Amino acid sequence: MPFALVYGEAFTKLPQDLYIPPDALEVILEAFEGPLDLLLYLIKRQNLDILDVPVAQITSQYMQYVELMKSLNLELAAEYLVMAALLGEIKSRMLLPRQPEAEEDEHDPRAELIRRLQEYERYKKAAEDLDEMPRVGREVYLAEAEPPRYERERTHPEVDLREVLLALQEVLNRADMFESHQVSRERLSTRERMSQVLERLSEDRFVPFVSLFTYAEGRLGVVVTFLAILELVKESLIELIQSEPLGPIHVKARESAHEIEPEDEAEQPEGELETAFEAGAPPVLEQPDADADDVGAGQPESEDNNNVS
Predict the structure, then answer these.
(1) Distance, CA of 252 to CA of 297 (rounded, Å)
(2) d(C-alpha 225, C-alpha 213), whole Å
(3) Which of 37, 155, 170, 283 can pair with 32 through a Cys bridge, CB separation 3.0 to 4.6 Å?
(4) CATH for 190-305?
C-alpha cells in the first residue's frame, strides 16, 4: 500500500538516496516559562520527591537543556543562567565534607530552592484551575441571534348571560357605596318650641318636666327644649315646682301665660342656636321685653316663694 504520492507516482518504500537535513524539521513539545518551570518539569518527569531532590542529577539535565537552547540559536534569558549558577553552587556545597559536631545545626542548601519550587507549583496549579473554567469566546459564546417572537393567541371564553348580570349587579353595588349624598339637619327654633310648650300647658296646666322632652330629636332637641323652658321661666310665663328635695320637677303655666304669646321668631334667626351648639358656646338668650316683666311683677310674693327656678 503506498504511503505517499509524488507527482502522481505512488511510493511504497523510502528511497535509498533520500537525504533529510538535520535542521529541516524541529519539534518542540514542551514550552517553559522560566527556570523554575523547567526544574519542576524535570522533577515530575522522573517522579522524584520534591523534598529530596537529587541536585547532581537535576543539574546535569538542566545544563543539557541549556546547551540545547544554545545550539538552536535561542536567546537565553538571564534568569536561566542565574538558576544554572545556583544549581552549581548547591551541587558544590552538597559535595563539601561536613563536620560531625555541626551536622545537626547546618542549614540544608536545597531548602531555599525547594521552597521556591513548592510555591511555584501552587501558583501553577491555581493557574491551571482558572484555565479550566469556562471562558467567553472559548467554551462559552454569547448569543447574537434574536429570540423568536411568538404571538399569543387570545381566546375569548364563552360567558353565560347569568354571569354577566351578576357582574353588573356587583358593579352597581360598588357604585352605590361611593355615591355622595348630603345630610341636612332639621333646624329647630327656640321660639317655636316655646309656643309648643305653652300649647301643651294650655291643655294640661300641670305636667312633669321630663314629659316635655322628645328623645327622638337627639341632643339638639333636648337643648332647644331646655332653653325654651328657661326662656319661658325668665319671661314669667311658666313656673317650675318641686315638692321635695331631689323630687320630680313639674311645670305649671301661669294664669297670664294664656294672654301673652311669645315674641316673633324673627327676633332670633333660625340656625343661630344650632351654630352656637355646634361651636360649643352657650347660646345668647334675648332680654325679655318690658311687658313680660310687668306681667311677672304683678304676681303675689307668697306664690314666688314656693317656686324653684
Answers:
(1) 18
(2) 7
(3) 37
(4) 1.10.10.580
Could you tell me which residues are beta bridge partners of residue 11?
4
DSSP state letter for 167: H
pLDDT above 70 as % of the chain: 67
Cα distances (angstroms) measured from residue 221 to each of 212, 271, 281: 11, 13, 16
- CATH 1.10.10.580 maps onto the chain at 190-305
Q: Residue 7 region, left (φ>0) first, then alpha (ψ -120 to 50), else beta?
A: left
d(CA 122, CA 110): 19
Give residue 227's pLDDT band: very low, low, confident or very high (50, 70, 90).
Answer: very high
Any idea which of 215-219, 248-252, 302-306 has the lowest mean pLDDT?
A: 302-306
**In 24-110, where does DSSP find H-type helix?**
35-45, 55-71, 78-95
> 286-297, pLDDT tens digit by residue?
444 434 333 333
Q: In a 10 Å sphere around its CB, with 0-12 CB exposed, 13-18 middle and 19+ buried, how is residue 302 labelled?
A: exposed
Q: What is the pLDDT of residue 262?
A: 46
**Is the pTM of the predicted complex or chain greater than 0.70?**
no
The cell for 36 is: 523554575
Nearest residue to 222 via CA among 212, 208, 234, 231: 212
Q: Where are the alpha helices (DSSP H) in 186-271?
A: 190-203, 218-234
CA distance to 94, 185, 234, 265, 267, per residue, from 270 (Å):
126, 12, 21, 8, 9
Cα torsion at 21, 27, 32, 34 (round to 10°)?
A: 10
